């Protein structure tokens, strides 16, 4: 097993803790150094994930493409913008090449926040998990920025779906924001999470929507597997079940 790789930085600013209902800033346009990103991949889909002091960027593609070399457009690009004005210290990035798991941790005052991400082969989706060791320290907005963000729609508050302009093609990408305790709200075509302690994001996409296994049914399928009889399913049960299966040694 290749040892985990750590990058340490300090004196960075990261917006993670909200003051009382601040205005959500307009998304900033900053080039992403994708060559420094970690790669997540299963048998069907893959993603590059990169953290900056203010944003997490995730670029989805198909493993047979060369998008990681910027020679073809991504299948999907998501931005997660942190909200607030607190200072970040002890920023660390790591990647476990044996399990394909990316982790980031940092401190905001006395709070430690940890983000874990991987592409699950068993559950055929990409999962991001955020947890803070103090309540209410997670606040962010997330949106689909590529391709054609105007074709993204929000359903049931927690679900962001994207399709091509032709509605007959079905949805080709989906993103869920699932807090463990609080709720989310809508801001245009973005989903906003305020003052949460733990949450997961689920990302899925395909070249074409399969009527027998629609992208938009990903959460329902996970619920049937890990929290049967409950809709919407419990994100806590889903996360711990998905993580346990992903962490099992390969046979």
Question: Summarize this, please?
Answer:
By secondary structure, this protein is mostly beta strands. It is built from 2 helices and 17 strands. The longest helix is centred in the C-terminal third of the chain and has 13 residues, at 235-247.
CATH H-level superfamily title:
putative glycoside hydrolase family protein from bacillus halodurans
Count all strands and give the number.
17
Q: Could you list the spans in which at least 5 consecutive residues all have pLDDT below 50?
A: 1-26, 67-71
> Under CATH, the topology is which?
Beta-galactosidase, Chain A, domain 5
Structural class: mainly beta
Please state the average pLDDT score: 82
N- to C-terminal distance? 16 Å
**Shape estimate:** globular
**In total, how many domains does the architecture comprise?**
1
Report Rg: 17 Å
Residues in β-strands, percent: 35-45%
Order of helices and strands: EEEEEEEEEEEEEEEEEHH
Largest sheet: 10 strands, antiparallel
Number of helices: 2
CATH architecture: Distorted Sandwich
Identify the notable features of this structure and list them briefly:
7-stranded antiparallel beta sheet, 251 residues, disordered N terminus, Beta-galactosidase, Chain A, domain 5, 9% helix, mainly beta
């Amino acid at each position: 097993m290749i040892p985990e790789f750590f990058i340490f930085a300090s004196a960075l600013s990261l917006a993670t803790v909200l003051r009382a209902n601040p205005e959500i800033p307009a998304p900033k346009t900053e080039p992403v150094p994708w060559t420094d990103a970690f790669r997540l991949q299963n048998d069907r889909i893959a993603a590059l994930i990169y953290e900056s002091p203010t944003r997490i960027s995730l670029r989805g593609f198909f493993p047979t493409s060369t998008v990681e070399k910027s020679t073809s457009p991504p299948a999907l690009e998501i931005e997660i913008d942190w909200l607030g004005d607190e200072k970040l210290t002890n920023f660390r990035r790591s990647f476990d090449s044996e399990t394909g798991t990316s982790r980031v941790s940092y401190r905001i005052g006395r709070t430690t926040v940890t983000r874990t991400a991987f592409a699950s082969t068993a559950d055929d989706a990409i999962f991001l998990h955020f947890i803070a060791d103090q309540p209410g320290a997670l606040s962010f907005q997330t949106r689909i920025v590529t391709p054609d963000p105007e074709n993204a729609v929000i359903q049931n508050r927690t679900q962001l779906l994207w399709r091509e302009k032709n509605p007959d093609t079905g949805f080709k990408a989906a993103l869920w924001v699932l807090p463990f305790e609080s709720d989310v709200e809508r801001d245009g075509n973005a989903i906003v999470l305020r003052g949460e302690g733990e949450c997961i994001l689920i990302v899925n996409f395909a070249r074409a929507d399969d009527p027998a296994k629609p992208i938009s049914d990903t959460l329902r399928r996970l619920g049937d597997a890990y929290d049967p009889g409950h809709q919407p399913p419990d994100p806590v049960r889903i996360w711990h079940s998905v993580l346990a299966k992903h962490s099992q040694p390969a046979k």
